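Q: My labmate handed me this sequence with no annotations at all. I'd like to see what the chain might look like in three dimensions before we decide whether it's worth expressing. Could you predict it?
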Amino acid sequence: MSDRHELFQFLTADSKVNGVPATNYLSTTYFLAKLASECDPSDVEHDISHKVPGVRVVDTRSAESYREAHIPGALNLPHRDLGPEHVTGLDREVTYVTYGFGPDCNAGTKGAAKLAVLGFKAKEMIGGFEYWKRDGFPVESGNPSDS
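A: Here is what I predict for the chain of 147 residues:
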């Protein structure tokens, strides 16, 4: 049987759950890679409220959006402008958690990708600022230089 035929059978199997069988190795690799790349607002709020060292939140939206409202203490590094010249003072031992507007915005993804390419540890907060607010966590407003 050809590899393509076997793959096609997986995709057209009667079971939509087990059509492609789960394997411990692939599942473990996938889920750990996912957790190495993202966290949720509850995780971020926990680390902020417990003053866990080694975590810094980065708002990758525009400076205007940041001024309107942002996560308390977040650094504003708009993804559109993010480059080597903007990260010279950042600590390379810290994990930077980025966020954008919400699940339909990839500003957090782009910001995390750029930080990672520039040699920083980065994760994206899933759900972005929308989910942060939906979960009832605090927000603040003001200029980037004010926080």
